[in-house]
């Protein structure tokens, strides 16, 4: 007759964990490979062609990658030409046209709601509209010559805020302001 198994587990064999060890080893081995793989950009593809030893294969690689780059440039030019077609852009604001041009070129444009700058010069046009030159090189003109005074002088800070329908509001540190349009 066999003795009863030990309920405390002293005589049981401990299970080994080869599967867990193997999976951990595979994960650790894959980390450098993932980190070392450069992104597939045209420049990286061209650089990869340099490492091909056989002359004919290297030339074929350069031809293939340069053809893809040329095709991409032609697609971008066609998209930009279509995006900027005067018949299609008629009636659109300048900002919308710039956004279309940037999108066709594959460039992402950041939109800014306000800018802060300092007054370099405040003058007046022949029709009585205020002209404000800023330290960032921009020049803004008052839209309506209504006699509003900014109570600002060179060196004072101003904030220009984007409004509705491509309008802009210039406000001085004196909290006086008026609608403006950018001249330069």
Q: What does the model show?
A:
- The protein has 2 domains: about 20-110, no CATH class; about 115-180, OB fold (Dihydrolipoamide Acetyltransferase, E2P).
- The protein is α+β, with helices and mostly antiparallel strands.
- The chain starts with 17 loop residues before the first helix and ends with a strand.
- The protein has a 6-stranded antiparallel barrel with strand order 1-2-3-6-5-4.
- Helix content is about 40%, strand content about 20%.
- The chain is elongated, with a radius of gyration of 33 Å.
- Strand 2 and strand 3 form a beta hairpin.
- The longest helix has 29 residues, at about 55-85.
What keyword list fits this structure?
single chain, 184 residues, alpha+beta, OB fold (Dihydrolipoamide Acetyltransferase, E2P), 2 domains, six-stranded antiparallel barrel, 5 helices
